[in-house]
UniProtKB/TrEMBL annotation:
TM stretches of this protein: 228-248, 268-286, 307-328, 340-357, 394-411
Record InterPro entries: EXS_C, SPX_dom
GO cellular component: Golgi apparatus; plasma membrane
Record has DNA repair as a keyword: no
Alphabetized GO MF terms: inositol hexakisphosphate binding
UniProt membrane topology term: Multi-pass membrane protein
Family to which this protein belongs: Belongs to the SYG1 (TC 2.A.94) family.
Domain spans labelled SPX: 1-170
Gene Ontology biological process terms in this record: cellular response to phosphate starvation; phosphate ion transport
Keywords of this entry: Membrane, Receptor, Transmembrane, Transmembrane helix
Subcellular location as annotated: Membrane
A Pfam family matched in the record: EXS
Name of this chain's protein: Xenotropic and polytropic retrovirus receptor 1
Amino acid sequence: MKFAEHLSAHITPEWRKQYINYEEMKAMLYTAVEEAPSMESADPDELTRHFKSFKETFFAFCDTELKKINTFYSEKLAEATRKFATLKSELSLAMKVAGKAKPKLSDIMNTQKKNVSARKVQDLKLAFSEYYLSLILLQNYQNLNFTGFRKILKKHDKLLNTDQGAKYREEYVEAAHFHTNTDIGRLITEVETTVTGELEGGDRQKAMKRLRVPPLGEKQTPWTTFKVGLFSGSFIVLFCAVLVSAVYHNEDGEDLKTTFKLFRAPLLLVEFLFLIGVNIYGWRSSGVNHVLIFELDPRNHLSEQDLMELAAIMGVVWTLSLLCFFYSPDLSIPRYFNPIGLVGVMFIFFLNPFKVLRHDARWWTVKVMWKCIAAPFYYVNFADFWLADQFNSLVTVFVDFHYIFYFYFVGADEQAERLTSSVKA
C-alpha cells in the first residue's frame, strides 16, 4: 500500500487538517520536475536557478508543516496531561468514597470547588478506556507525521538527485518536539499501571483487554469463520429447497403474489446486511478506516464476517419460515402465522433491550436511525447521512412492511377471510 493511502486510512478525521500535507508536497515535487527546463536545451545556470528556487519554496513549506504539527501535538499533549491528572483525582476520591480509605473533608471540598463529581468505578473504567484510546490516537499522529516527513524527503532526494532532504530530516524533523517527546509513551504506561492496579485488582490481562485497541486489519478467529461458512452453506441448501418447493407447490397466482410480498422485505434486509459486510471487506482491503469514519468503538464493532454471519443466520430463519409456510398443513401450523412470526423474530432481535446478541451494535443502529428520522432536531454526522442514503435503496422494504401491516391489521375483507380460514385450519 502506498503511504498516501496508508495515511488517508489511519488519520483521525477530526484532525485531518493537522496532519502533514503529504499529497500536496508530493505534487510540488512532481510539478517541479515536470516544469524544469530541458537539460539538453537549457542553460545549466537556468536549471540551477529553477531547482534552487523550488528548494527554497519546498523547505519553507516543510517548515510551515513542521510548525503546525509541533503546535498541534503540544496542545493535545497538554490537554492529555490535564485530563490524566483529573482522572487520577477522581479515581482517588472514588476509591475513598467506596470505603478503601476515609476521605478527607479538604479533598471533598476541593473536588466540589472544581465541579468534579466522584464517578462510580465502572464509569471510571470507561473514562480511562476512552482516555487510553485518545493517547493511542495521539501516538499514531506522532508516528504518521514522522513517517510522512521521512517518505517525502526521501522522495525529494531521489527526484532531485540530492541529499538536502536527508540533511533537513536529521537537522529539523528528528529534532522536532513532536518526534523527540516521549510523554505519550509515559502516559500510556501510567494508564496501564493505574487501571491494572486500581481498577482491575492487579489483573494486567484483564486491564489490557479493556484498554487494547485492535488494529484495523485484525484477523478473524477461526470460530467466526466457521460459523459464517456453516450458516451460509445451510442457507444455500435451504434456499434451494425453497425454490423446489415453490415450483412443485400448488398455488394460484394471487396466493403466490401475496406470499412474495409477505416474505420479500425480510429477504431484502438479509441481502442488505450481507452486502454491508462485503462493503466493509472492500473498505478494509483498500485501507479505508471505516471505524474512524463512522465513529465506531475501535474495541467493539462488527467486522465483515460478523455481519455476514448475522445475514446468514437470518437467511436460515427466513428459509425455514417460508418452508413452514409451504408445508403448514403437514406441520399443523396456521399458514399465515409464519410471515408475521418471521417479522416478529427480526424485530425482537433488533429491539431487544438486554445486553446480549450484539447489543452495542444494535443500539448504535437504533440511535442512528432515530437521528435520521428526527434529523431537524439533532446534529447529524457522516454515519447519519450514510444510513439515510441507504434508506433510499430500501424503499421496497418499507413498502412491503406497509403491506404486511395492512394485510394483518387492516386488510381487505377477502384477505381477512383467508387469514381466518387458515387459522381455523
